[in-house]
Amino acid sequence: MSYKDQIDLQKLPRHIAVIMDGNGRWAKGKGKLRVFGHHNGVLSVRDVVEAAGELGVEYLTLYTFSAENWNRPKLEVTAIMELLISTLNKEIAKLMNNNVRLNAIGDLSKLPGKCHRELLAAIEKTSVNTGLVLTLALSYSSRDEIVHAAQQLAAKVQSGELQPQDINEQLFEDNLYTGGMPNPELLIRTSGEYRISNYLLWQIAYAELYFTQKLWPDFRREDLFEAILDYQKRERRFGKTSEQVN
């Protein structure tokens, strides 16, 4: 029996977040340049997006490019940005056919002009879709996101629109880039690393963490199904006892 056949569709995580790690090491292991790994990583993205949509997962958020990634060699950064543009152009028809709505979070103003325009155009075009919400975390830093939310609230206090005592968890959460989205219940990281890497730090407070040794270009739909199945076998207590949950 396949992993997919064992999944309880009534107990799917509404929101899955993924740290897509290992493209560079995958390419290096094949004697290729790092960008070769990024190109092959796109195939994994396509497979995982389709698989999540088929199951009925509502939100999928992919750590596509971190704020720290700008410090990588210029040639690699340029190649990644060009790959993003070409991928958006190639995949837009498939997103429309699969009813996928594209979204992006992060400091998008730092993206190159053409890349930024293509991204916003794709987001606008898919805004009519009602299926899976695919969010790309681009130029993203969770700490920056939290600081930005604090600044937003501080400005409202300063203007008299808000009182300090009115600030609570929900209001803070509403001012994050992910405001309006449910928090991830499952976080997947590939490549055998056991770090969060400044990704959705607030949002994953109660997420189940799943780590796999597979490098991202080798991660496919069956691997996603396996991760979801593992998630469904866990007991999510949120600070309560097993007896209280059951």
UniProtKB/TrEMBL annotation:
Cofactor binding: number and manner: Binds 2 magnesium ions per subunit.
Enzyme Commission code: 2.5.1.-
Residue sites binding Mg(2+) per the record: 21, 208
Binding site for substrate: 22-26, 34, 38, 66-68, 70, 72, 189, 195-197
Keyword Transferase on entry: yes
Active site: 21, 69 (proton acceptor)
First-tier enzyme category under EC: transferase
InterPro entries cross-referenced by the UniProt entry: UPP_synth-like, UPP_synth-like_CS, UPP_synth-like_sf
UniProt-recorded Gene Ontology molecular function terms: ditrans,polycis-polyprenyl diphosphate synthase [(2E,6E)-farnesyl diphosphate specific] activity; magnesium ion binding
CDD domains in the record: Cis_IPPS
Cofactor: Mg(2+)
GO terms under biological process: polyprenol biosynthetic process
Record's keyword terms, sorted: Magnesium, Metal-binding, Transferase
Pfam families assigned: Prenyltransf
PROSITE patterns the UniProt entry points to: UPP_SYNTHASE
Subunit structure: Homodimer.
NCBIfam families in alphabetical order: PRK14830.1, uppS
Function: Catalyzes the condensation of isopentenyl diphosphate (IPP) with allylic pyrophosphates generating different type of terpenoids.
Entry similarity comment: Belongs to the UPP synthase family.
PANTHER family named among the record's database cross-references: DEHYDRODOLICHYL DIPHOSPHATE SYNTHASE 2, DEHYDRODOLICHYL DIPHOSPHATE SYNTHASE FAMILY MEMBER
Protein name: Isoprenyl transferase
